[in-house]
Amino acid sequence: MYYVLKGHMFEDEVQSMIQLFFINKSFSVSECIVNDGMCVVSTYKDNCCIADIYDNGVFCFSEREKTHNDDIKEIKRCIKISLYKVFKNITGFEMPWGILTGVRPCKRVHDMQKEGHKSDFIKKTLKEGYFVSDKKISLVMEVAENEKKVLSENNKNKVSVYIGIPFCVSKCLYCSFTSYTVGQYKNKIDDYLKALYKEMEFVSKYIKNKEIESIYVGGGTPTSLSEIQLENLMKNINLFFNKPKEFTVEAGRPDTITKDKLKILKEYGVLRISINPQTMNDKTLELIGRNHTVKQFIDIFEMARSIGHKHINTDVILGLPYEGENETVNTFKQLEKLSPESITVHTLAVKRGSRLKEVFNNYKMTDYSTMEKMIDISSRYAEKLKMKPYYMYKQKNMVGNFENVGYCKDNCQCAYNIQIMEERHSVFAVGAGASTKLCIPEENRVERIFNVKSVEDYINRIDEMISRKADGFSEFESSEGNKGYFWR
Ligand SMILES: C[S@@+](CC[C@H](N)C(=O)[O-])C[C@H]1O[C@@H](n2cnc3c(N)ncnc32)[C@H](O)[C@@H]1O
């Protein structure tokens, strides 16, 4: 498939619409109409965006959208609308999120609210200006409302800390996160932790007078560390950082958890853990390479409860290979019995860097309407469990451009998840692949400082990572209007 741009250079917008309708198809830009398969021409001329489709050089369809003004945002929106309409014509599909392809749909709602718009106006804009479905409008409005309590308590004195442990016992089929197997990296983990503690100490000095809203230890799977390593990590977190209001550790894979590790987490003040089944169907667990059974997950979950872990989150993924409505019902029925405090429902994303991407064509992926039904099942079960949707995000390359939603019982929302999505609160992140975000909500500004991804580079270049942070912090602090924003 080819695309041609005429009268504008907004390639990202054109690509995002092609990707939305033709997931996993390759496409490239061309100077002129190509007589080889499908070619789409996106034109901006005289306040009008036009999308024309050609098949082997023969004109087939056209759609247009008039812009209301010359604002770049408006032109981009209309380019997307014209393409959306023409692709909808040829495929017969309507996308649940319309032309909203960004990762953070709630942000759009909060922005409109900040501009003083009322709910009815926001809903109308999402429906008529972005083609979002009624169901998704209700969802995004509800999530935005449920996020308000956490967001309204933000102030300059509050920050969060992310600590990355990029190790796991093995890589799941769908996983594209930075993670290294503990087996292969056995000899490097202690060096990694040493470098991590150096970076933690550095950050702790900068934020020593701050209130830490949350500490989030993520991965990989932090519990793939040995008991001694995990205990040392917890000791250092307690040593360097003020006591947080919220403290999460992603225990993740049940096959990494032991009774002693659960006790260590409890003893050092962890308030929320994630134990993730992804699915409650053994066949799928085997297929995605998780090396644990449903029974093992249940046993570990109950063990965590018996040790006194009061907030357990469970991650699930809808749309794993060969799963349909029955498997989703089974997953939720079984989770219902365990009654976790929160469930994070993901829809499968086929990401670059995952084994799934390499073998995509060997698997029968879930079709759009089945995925929609599975999402409905998950939200019905969440309601039954007295859970509300409290945060959400979308990822690229999701089948049907669907969303990930975190559901929780009353007062069980994870503030960290909300903050990381809404970007109005600074997060100081340490570890390989971690990215620090310095936020100035008044200016809608976010400055990022990145660490290197590879474990070896992180260990060897830890001093450089620390000076990157020092430079980033002082640059941020000396920029107009930010004097003393964080650390004076
Ligand atoms: C950072 S990952 C950590 C997972 C943890 N190591 C484990 O294996 O349980 C957080 C969650 O993202 C979700 N996830 C990861 N890759 C995904 C993908 N390709 N599509 C959908 N959800 C995905 C999974 O539910 C996973 O538990």
Number of domains: 4
For the biggest sheet, the summary is:
9 strands, mixed
Which percent range describes the beta-strand content? 15-25%
Oligomer: single chain
Low-confidence segments, given as residue ranges, are: none
Global structural class: alpha/beta
Number of helices: 17
Bin the helical content: 40-55%
Average pLDDT works out at 93
Question: Would you summarize the structure shown here?
Answer:
The chain is of the alpha/beta class and 488 residues long. The protein has helices spanning 11-21, 72-91, 105-114, 119-130, 134-152, 182-185, 189-206, 227-240, 259-267, 282-287, 294-307, 325-338, 355-358, 368-384, 415-422, 455-460, 462-478; strands at 2-6, 28-29, 38-45, 48-55, 58-66, 158-165, 167-168, 180-181, 211-219, 246-252, 272-275, 312-318, 342-347, 388-394, 403-408, 427-430, 435-440, 445-450.
